[in-house]
Amino acid sequence: MIQQQLIWGYLLLCFVLATLPWVSNRLFLLKRLAHKNFVIRLLEWMVYAALALMAGWGLEWQLTGEIKSQDWEFYVSTLFMFIIMAFPGFIWYQQRKKQQPTMITE
Predict the structure, then answer these.
(1) Collapsing DSSP states into helix, strand and coil, what is residue 41?
(2) 56: which residues sit within 8 A by CB, 6+ positions away?
């Protein structure tokens, strides 16, 4: 039962980390930026993906006592899972960007 709760908690952590760069204007929740462009958000998302992978390794070590060797297919599928988890935050970011008023110069 505890193992199942830890796995669901890990998936929730991954979802939060995947959506965080798209819903917050803070850089790594520390520094507030007036404008955070797409490239900065993407780089922040990649760092969070690496942190989620390291947390997964830590969880695997905690539950089994070892980290199993994986092939490249595992890491590609993990990356795509993280992309899918970021989708709601990315859509929210795009919708918010469209709603911001633009300056009209004449």
Answers:
(1) helix
(2) 10, 78
